[in-house]
Amino acid sequence: MTGLLDGRSAIVTGAGRGIGRAIVEALAAAGAQVIVADVGASIGGDGADPAPAREVAEAINMGGGKKAIAFTESVASPGIAKQLVEIAVKNFGGIDIVVNNAAILRDAFVFRMDPRDWDAVIRNNLSAPFYLINAAAAVMRDQGKSGRGGAAYEWGRIVNIVSSAGLYGNLGQAAYASAKAGLFGLTRVTAMDLARAQITVNAVAPFARTRVTDIIQPANDAQKSYKERALRIGAHHVANLVTALCMPAAKGITGQLMGVRGREVFLFGQPRPVARLEVDKPEALAADLTAKLGAKFTDLTTDLEAFNTEPLV
What we know:
By secondary structure, the chain is α/β, with parallel strands linked by helices. 42% of the residues lie in helices and 13% in strands. The chain has an eight-stranded mixed β-sheet with strand order 3-2-1-4-5-6-7-8, with helices on both faces. Strand 4 (97-100), helix 4 and strand 5 (157-161) form a beta-alpha-beta unit. Helix 1 (18-29) crosses helix 9 (236-245) and helix 4 (115-146) runs parallel beside helix 6 (174-193). The longest helix is centred in the middle third of the chain and has 32 residues, at 115-146. The two termini are 20 Å apart.
C-alpha cells in the first residue's frame, strides 16, 4: 500500500502506543503525513507524558523528511481540537484523514460508579471525537470546494475506533460501553451529514492486544480464555483495516460498522426491527411480548463471551 496515500494528511488520536501507534505508522508507510496525537495519560486518563507521541513521530521521521508531528494536548475540548486541525492545515496544507482512537477506561458496576468517572469517560471517549470531527469536517468540506486532490475531493476519511463492549455490553463497563455505543451513533450521523461531500465515515471494533486487554482481571474461565487469545493478536491487523478504509478504493464504503480480529474482518449488522407485534389489549402487552416475541429476544451474552473462539493470527 506504499504511496497510495501520498499527498494526504492524517490525525490519529491515542497514537503514542498500541493500536493507535500501529495505525499512524501504517498511514505514514502508505504515504500520508501524520499528526501523532497523544497526551500520554494512563488508561484511566490520569497524568500526562509527551514522550510516547514524540518517540513515534521521531521514529516515523527517521525515514527522511518531516512526515510526522507530535501533538501532546488533550483533544477533550473544542478549542484544542480546532487547534489540532489548524496545525495539520498549517504544516501539511490540509486534513484528509481523522482516526479517533484515544480512549480511557474507568470500570465499575453501575451501583458503585462515581458520576465523575462517568463524566470523564464520556468526555474523553465520545465528546473528544465529536470535537475533532466538528473541527475537521468543516475544513474537509471546504477542501472539496477548492479542489484539493483533484476536481472531485475523494480524500476525506473519518474512522472511529469503537468497541464490541458498546455493541454487546460487558460487566462493569457502563461508561465505556455507553461512550463507544454513542460513538457508533455519531459515526452513522456523520456519514449521512458528509455523504454529499464525498467524505466517508466508518467505525471499527478492534480485537487486539491493548492496555485494555492487559488489565482485564478474568472473573471466569471464558474471560480468562478471551484474554489469553487477545494477547496473541497484533495491533497491525487493525491498522491494515483502517488504512484500507482510507484508500481510494474504499470511497464507496461509508456508515459501516466493522470488526477486525487478526486476519478476520467482520461486517456487523446494524440495529433494525426483527419482529413486529400488533397490540390488541394493552393490559396483555407484557405477556404478549414474552409469548410472541420472546424467541427473538437478545440474550445478555457479553462481548468477551461472544468472541471467545480462536482467532486467525
